[in-house]
Amino acid sequence: MQPFVDSKLFSKYQEILVLQSSCIRALPTGQDWYLKVIHMPKNYAETIWDISFVKNQAQLQLTRYLSSLWTALNNSSDSRPLIHPRLEVSEGNLSPHDFSVLEVKKGIARNCIHQSFEKKEEDQYKILFFDQNGPYEADITAPYQRKDCEEWQRLLNRLIGSGLSLPRRFVAA
To answer: Which of 7, 81, 163, 167 is the most buried if burial means most Cβ atoms within 10 Å?
Structure first.
């Protein structure tokens, strides 16, 4: 996989990922909170977690690219249109006591530090979070290699664990 070197292409890449799954731009009436976490890895396909929490009910949508969107985007041009990779989308309800839900309720999303993407050849993560206090967005590079990213590491580990319990299904892009 090529590193994220072209900033214009990288912006388009992020935009596609943000719009790919059930992203909202403001918290709908009656919704307690909404969290989207995007993993843009350096060596394999992308993953997106979306959790919405309404009236003590949490729903998780996990979107996994079956091949790298970044590679597909790099291989496209004016004469060769972008061929979107196939997706695997899993959806399910989470218990209000699920560790991911509990961490978000305790404020972990807003505690994840924001540092603009540094090394384009490393894994990138993005958080989009909405609650009654308004939107919050954070980006980070290689959080597992950093000592100041405990919140990122905890949140990602919880999301990965929560995603394991969902039934899997394939969807064409």
So the answer is: 163
